From TrEMBL:
Record-linked PANTHER family: ABC TRANSPORTER, ATP-BINDING PROTEIN
Source organism (scientific name): Streptomyces celluloflavus
Protein name: ABC transporter ATP-binding protein
PROSITE patterns: ABC_TRANSPORTER_1, ABC_TRANSPORTER_2
Annotated keywords: ATP-binding, Nucleotide-binding, Transport
GO MF terms, alphabetically ordered: ATP binding
Amino acid sequence: MTSIEVRDLTKTHGTLRAVDRLTFRVPPGRVTAFLGPNGAGKSTTLRVLAGLQRPTSGSATFDGRAYRELPRPLRRVGMLLDPDAAHGARRAHDHLLAMARSNRIPARRVGEVLADAGIADAARKRVRTFSLGMRQRLGIAAALLGDPGVLVLDEPTNGLDPQGIIWIRTLLRRLAAQGRTVLVSSHLMAEVALAADHLVVMARGRLLADLPMDAFVRENTHRTVRVRTTEGTRLRDELARAELTAVPGDDGSWTVDGAAPADIGALAARHGIPILELTEEGPSLEDAYLRLTREETRT
Ligand SMILES: Nc1ncnc2c1ncn2[C@@H]1O[C@H](COP(=O)(O)OP(=O)(O)OP(=O)(O)O)[C@@H](O)[C@H]1O
C-alpha cells in the first residue's frame, strides 16, 4: 500500500511562509490526524499534495510520485478538499458518473458510494440544493469512488450532524483496518481522539509533533486528582506537609497535582479527614493539543 510522503516542503505566499520545511510520512494501516491552529498551513499542505498548488521547494508525494503523475488518480488516491467541488447545476449521480468515466471506474460504483455516504435518496437532486452536510457526504462519496488505497480528507466532519460524525469515525477506522492510508484534518479534538491512531501537528507552517496518539497525550499532559472533603483547609495543610499542593476550585473541590488518588486517600485516612470524592482526571487530547499549540496561533 502507498504512503504519503511530505519532504522538506515549503510554500510561500509573498513573504508569508505558509508551509516551512515540513517533513512527515503517513504510512498505511492507521488513521493519521492532521492538526494545527487556524492558519497553520494544513490546507496549503493538502493542496500541494493534491497538485492544486506548486511547492516553492520540497515535495508532497504518494510513494514518491506527485498526484499529477498518477495514472487514473482517483483509483489510487481519494481526496476531499473542498465540499463545493461539485458543480451546483449537476445532479449528484451525474457528477460522480463523470468522475468515474474519466478514471475508468465501473459505473456501478456510483450507486455504491452514494449509498455508503447515506445520500442515495438525493442521487437525482442538483448539488446546489444540498445542505453543507450533504455536500460533505457527496465529497466523501467522490473520494471513495475509485476504491483508493489512500484517503486524504480535509475537515470531513464540517457541517455533519452527530450521526454523520459517528459515520465518518467508523468509516475512517474501517478504511485503516483494511490497510489503507488515511490522513484526516480536523479541528474537533474529541472526535480525533476517538478516530485517530497517530497525530501530525503543525503550527506556523512547521511540524510541532508527529507521534502516536497515546504518546502525544502522555507527553503533553499531566494527571491531576480532584478531591472533595468536609475539611478542606486541614486536607490542604496535611498535603502541604507531604509537599503536595492542593488548589481550591470554584465548586468546593480541590485539585492536587503529582499524586495518585490512593496516596491522597491514605493520607486523609491517617489524619481522619473525611473524603467525599476522589477522582483522577485523565489527560484529554484537547488539553494536550491546546497546551502544545497555545503559543503558536498565527494572527
Ligand atoms: N493563496 C494565498 N495567498 C496568500 N496567503 C495564503 C494563501 N493561502 C493561504 N494563505 C495563508 O497561509 C497560511 C496557511 O493557511 P492554510 O489555509 O494552509 O492554514 P490551515 O492550517 O488550513 O488553516 P485553517 O485551519 O484555518 O483552515 C495562512 O496564514 C493563510 O492566510
